[in-house]
Amino acid sequence: MGSTMxxxxxxxxxxxxxxxxxxxxxxxxxxxxxxxxWPGDRGLAVMIVMPVEWHMLDPSGKPFKHxxxxxxxxxxxxxxxxxxxxxxxGAYRLLRALKEAGLKATVPVNGIALERYRPLVEAALExxxxxxxxGWSTDAIHHSGLSEDEERALVGRTREAFERAGLTPxxxxxxxxxxxFRTLPLIAEAGFDVCLDWxxxxxxxxxTTDAGVVQAVPLMNELDDRTLLIDRRQTEDAWAxxxxxxxxxxxxxxxxxxxxxxxxxxxSYVAGQPFRMSAVRRMLAGxxxxxxxxxxxxxIARCLDSGDTESKESKS
Length: 316
Prior knowledge:
Family: Belongs to the polysaccharide deacetylase family.
Protein name: Chitooligosaccharide deacetylase
InterPro entries: Glyco_hydro/deAcase_b/a-brl, NODB_dom
Strand content: 5-15%
Organism: Brevundimonas aurifodinae
Helix content: 25-40%
Distance between the termini: 43 Å
CATH topology: TIM Barrel
CATH class: Alpha Beta
Pfam family, one: Polysacc_deac_1
Shape: globular
């Protein structure tokens, strides 16, 4: 066999330096993080995220299938009807549980779902939750195989759909939380300055793009209900215990002079099932009684002033 030579560009790392191989934000150990507190002198902010997604029967699956996409050959009615259960039943059940506990949520909505599920959007708004943009659809996944014009069109189409609906969200979450190298500057260009795709810290991180700064408010995939209950097949009580344990740990880690964010997801067709609601209610009650600040993504971002964020730090 002959030897295979790597192209020279595979050996060149333009961002090779202390920290990570990117120029969006600087690397630092936790001990060097600027300290601060949340409103009411609280150390923990709890950000609950409840996505509103529209799943189609025949997704293209490019460049990969969304984690909630259809699984079996056409027509996959079993998974399709389960996904439809979410915005039809499960989401309203979760909204009631959040209201009973006195907690807020961030509700990312696919642009294509705004009119389809308008009563659900109105119900979330009426209860004081934040409506965020969740890209165009579960089958419009952002990736570096798209041209800049193609991806800009996806972001623009999403923004236009919200404008037609009379909504101007500042928070963005990509479908499947997948990005290309261009996604951040493109969403900043479209007026989104808060993003839920990144989770590199336990506090928001200011990420600098050519189109402006985007605050990455951390959302933990490791506590995602679909990941733990469906993919890892944990019990509902184990999942609820993990969320409450994370809240207690982060609150203790913040101490008396620092702060943390606990962000996790409630998926309507997963957490909104009737046999899971006792665990959901126990979890929400524990969070409400734990002295944390129940906040939306944009509220957390608004709370950060220039002296508390990373935007003035060196990106060395």
